[in-house]
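Lab notebook page, bench 4
Experiment: in silico fold of construct C2
Operator: M.H.
Input chain length: 190 residues
Purpose: comparison with the prior construct
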Amino acid sequence: MLRIVTVTVALAAALTLAGCQSTTSAAPTPVQSTDLTSSDGGFDKQAVIGVVLVHDDAALAVELRTGLSDAGFRPDVRVAPASGAASSQRAAVAQLVRKGAKALLVHAERPSTLTGVVQTAHDAGVVVVSLGDQLPAAGTGGDGVSADYRVPAGADDADVAATAVEMVRSLQRGEKPETDVTDGDTTDAE
């Protein structure tokens, strides 16, 4: 009798563990991208933060890499070459989503070419921050916005980087940043 009970318990445990194993998605869902609140919990401070820039952004790349690293994040900075920048940026965004980036900072060469991959990032729960010009909305049944937040372009790369890093810090804490995606003006988050 004891042997039957032991075999039954072992079999039940094996079936339970087998039921827990399944394929995982390419990118975990850290937060709900367009409705970020403190209850969402943000993401790990050592998270990968993807940065996708154009070839003219070498100084901004250095500023963002330094600022994000100093804040405790793991920046993955991709600068598109002058030739084929749009396709290079599209590939970089897709790779960063698959890598599990929790947020993407994107300065697009041609914003319209990123529509599909930005929607994929949203679907994976990645928060997308547009640097400079807004990214166009997907228009494919998406959430109606292209980027969750926007950091307006500035004359000084250090200021743009500092604003972007502070925005990522807010996202990491599960807080809604104070920059409005619709016009880039600073607004009160409450």
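Observations: The helical segments are 2-20, 58-70, 85-99, 115-123, 157-172. The longest strand covers residues 48-53.
Next step: discuss at group meeting.
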